[in-house]
Amino acid sequence: MDKRYSDSDFRGQIYLPAPVTPFAANGDLMLDAFADVLRFYLDVCAVDSFVIAGNNGEGSAISAPELGRLVETATKVVAGRVPFFAHVTRTSNRESIARAEIAAAAGATGICLMGQPYIHKATEAEIVDRFVAVTKAVPLPMYVFNDVGHQGFSISANTLSAICEVAPVVVMSDGARDLGAALQTIAAFGDRFPILYGPPALLVPALLLDAGGLGGTGLELFGARVRPELLDIHERTPAERLEIVRRYGAVAAAVARFGSPPAGMKAALAMLGVPAGVPREPVQPLAPADEEALRGELTRLGVFGRPGD
After folding, report:
1. Residues 195 and 185: beta-carbon distance below 8 Å
2. Nearest-angstrom CA–CA distance, 59 and 18
């Protein structure tokens, strides 16, 4: 699909994940390992873009100076191959702006921003004001992150319209919990910029209904198979589509079930030879028994070979 968007340089359905941030056992950043993680996403998964310090990247545990170091590393590794975003959300607009300024100075090509996080309630005026403030300070392309779990609410199509009037939105990750809400957003904005989905129950239906691409956890474990299996979903039979929903959903559930996220994701990547490091405290690495159980589950689901091997 060679779909063009009126407000974005992205074309067609895209894959835009949130890479993990490798930490050493003492909590230090592992920048060389982070560079290797990004090469895995670029060279193996063939991503169209990515977001640094997202949920899988443990952004809530990363300081502003550390975010700058991660962006500097990404800038060198990417070397202009794809655009990438830095997730800068903090509860206050002031802190979000400070992080956005650091990320921009370090070379980020775009900013990723949520609505009001951790407060679990916000008026439309409060949400829009956040995007006004960050865009005024750092007028880079904007990734709207509708993270329902951490916001406590979903950004509606009406609120997104107001955001688009004040910020240069080029992509959205939509955490809507039901297909009806997702369809409203796709219908209103799907021709303007890619709208990404990750939850397995919505992923394939949204793609079939012209969503802009993928942004979920666990898809990267299938490496080079992600793009042909999911971004070519229109070419699949109904039975194949059901199998893709089942398998990808089971993988996402498995990496979330063992330990506290993103411990399972980091362990799974390490099994593939990707130097994901360990989580930063208070999240702990998987216990040996959980790691072995996760390996068995992922093997059964075909991450390390054909399903059932």
Report:
1. yes
2. 10
**Per-residue 3-state assignment (H helix, E strand, C coil) for 71-120:** HHHHHHHHCCCCCCEEECCCCCHHHHHHHHHHHHHHCCCEEEEECCCCCC
Q: What is the DSSP letter of 233?
A: G
The pLDDT tens digits of the residues spanning 155-210 come to 999 999 999 999 999 999 998 878 888 899 999 999 999 999 987 778 888 888 88
Per DSSP, the three-state class of 278 is strand
Pairing of strands 213-214, 195-197: parallel
Average pLDDT over residues 116-126: 82
Q: What is the dihedral of CA 74, 77, 79, 80, to 10 degrees?
A: -50
CA distance 279 to 13: 31
pTM: 0.93
Instruction: Tell me whether strands 14-15 and 213-214 are parallel, antiparallel or unpaired.
Output: parallel
pLDDT on residue 306? 53
Evaluate if residue 307 carries a pLDDT over 60.
no
Is the CB of residue 12 less than 8 Å from the CB of residue 232?
no
Helix (H, G, I), strand (E, B) or coil at 29: strand
Q: Report the pLDDT value the prediction gives residue 114, as an integer from 0 to 100.
A: 93
Mean pLDDT of all residues belonging to the chain: 92
Compute the distance between CA of residue 302 and CA of residue 199 in angstroms, rounded to an integer. 19
Closest CA to 266 of 89, 18, 79, 94: 18
Residue 5 CB neighbour total at 10 angstroms: 19
The confidence band for 106, taking pLDDT boundaries of 50, 70 and 90, is very high
Distance CA(255)–CA(23), nearest Å, equals 18
Domains of the chain: 14-238 (3.20.20.70)
